[in-house]
Amino acid sequence: MKIGLVGGSYQDYSLPFNAERSVNLYPVFDKQGKEVSALYGTPGLSLFGTAGVGACRQNFAAANGRGFVVSGANLWEIDNAGDTINRGTLLQSSGNVTIAENGLQLAICDGANLYIFTYSSNAFAQVTDPDLPTCGTVTFIDGYFVVNKVGTGSFYRSALYDGTSWNSLDFATAESSPDNLVRVYNALGQLWLLGSTTSEIWTNTGSSAFPFQKISGGKLDVGILASCTAIALENSIIWLGQDDNGRFSVYQTTSVVPSVISPEPINLRFSQATLPEEIVSYTYQEQGHNFVVFTGGGLETSLVYDLSTKLWHERAYLNSEGEYEQHLGYCCMSIFGKQLVGSRVDGKIYEMSMDFYSDNGDSLLRERIYTHLVDEFKRIRYNKLNLGFETGVGLQSGQGQNPLVTLQLSKDGARTWSTSYTTSIGRVGAYTTNVNFRRLGIAQQMTFRIKISDPVKVAICGSYLS
């Protein structure tokens, strides 16, 4: 009998109701394959370069092919060999950062101050124009840098293609509601003004007085909770927001009617974050999947939405105590033909790839908790569980020569677990290995948990009971 192996992470308020979890595994679907669905291991990390010692706060792939990282209080440039050079110093060494460019200059905002890096001269300086307000975030649209003034609903635009020059009269205010403006963001060719509880969409009308005007009807009755979660992807904009009742949700929209794409178990995870306003997000593409990663802000693990499958899963780093933490990657840029992520811990820059099976040498623990198995609470004998692993993936030497999968059982709704049982998923070339567990016992309700930590390729296609 085939059972439901594949799924996302949707542990609910009550574990006996739903304990389903996928950590460092993500679902894939293929109607033409042997199975219509499978679980693949998420990419690992390999050290690419080091940008100082401070935690990475943001990175940016410029249109001219140059890569930049804000680590601690410094702006670093990184080249295709992983070598770095310090390009300037910010006033603040912590907190989230937004970055934008106009083709000539790079603008960096640390939540209070604005800095300009000029590509042609490699000059870096804080913008000291007295007409520039205390700015929360920065974006670029139609030749102008745009910033929001902290603690207000106002936003300002720079001079044309010059982020060092500002005029105190070149501003406007989002006035549909009295909430403060939290993020300015260029998406879908429009200027999105994301407030704490409401949002507005403005467009460039070409007016000589002030080029941006609110679109008729362009008001959204939802705001952004964490300013650095706004992501433009697949002709839509996605962000972590909250409504008038303070309810956390992830929204996606192409218009003034946003849709909630986070189910209640995921919203519960966001609500449990200790500093939800500091959560950040980044996006990357791999094997036809567009992923949006939410991390930081005291989340237990990093939460990931896959736009291809519309499912959520978790990414996590295994610490020295054997507990899950957030994934090491805090920000991501696609550059030099690689996906480069900046570490939330220090200035290390990692290449992230499906070709790596560890977190730069540290174990990458993959875990799947199935949906509960129950048949009107009848007592059922479970004789054998067969797992459809891609087998024969063992390494030639070292850990992973004989890669193992561990199984644990729960008969009380995933509140307690049995001792661990292990079996091999096949030494190198052992492609006909049968991955199964026998004599699993009798239960009214059964839940399976499997784990794999060896640094090998993980692909699981199907799961069967007999």
Can you tag this structure with a few keywords?
Jelly Rolls; Methylamine Dehydrogenase, Chain H; 2 domains; five-stranded antiparallel β-sheet; 51% strand
What would you note in describing this structure?
The N and C termini lie close together (6 Å). Strands 1, 34, 35, 37, 38 and 40 form a six-stranded antiparallel β-sheet that branches. A five-stranded antiparallel β-sheet has the order 2-3-41-36-39, with no helix packed on it. Strands 21, 22, 23, 24 and 25 form a five-stranded antiparallel β-sheet that branches. The chain contains one helix and 41 strands. 2% of the residues lie in helices and 51% in strands. It has two domains: 21-42 and 367-465, Jelly Rolls; 44-362, YVTN repeat-like/Quinoprotein amine dehydrogenase (Methylamine Dehydrogenase, Chain H, 7 Propeller).
What would the CATH topology of the largest domain be? Answer: Methylamine Dehydrogenase, Chain H
* Secondary structure: number of strands: 41
Structural class: mainly beta
The percent of residues in helical segments reads under 10%
Describe the biggest sheet? 6 strands, antiparallel
CATH architecture of the largest domain: 7 Propeller
Shape: globular
> What is the total number of structural domains?
2
The CATH superfamily of the largest domain is known as YVTN repeat-like/Quinoprotein amine dehydrogenase
Number of helices: 1
Mean pLDDT: 95
Strand content: over 45%
Measured between the Cα atoms of the first and last residue, the distance is 6 Å
Q: Indicate the low-confidence ranges by residue numbers.
A: none
> What's the CATH C level of the largest domain?
Mainly Beta
- Rg over CA atoms, rounded to whole Å, is 24 Å
User: For this entry, what is the oligomeric state of its chains?
Assistant: single chain
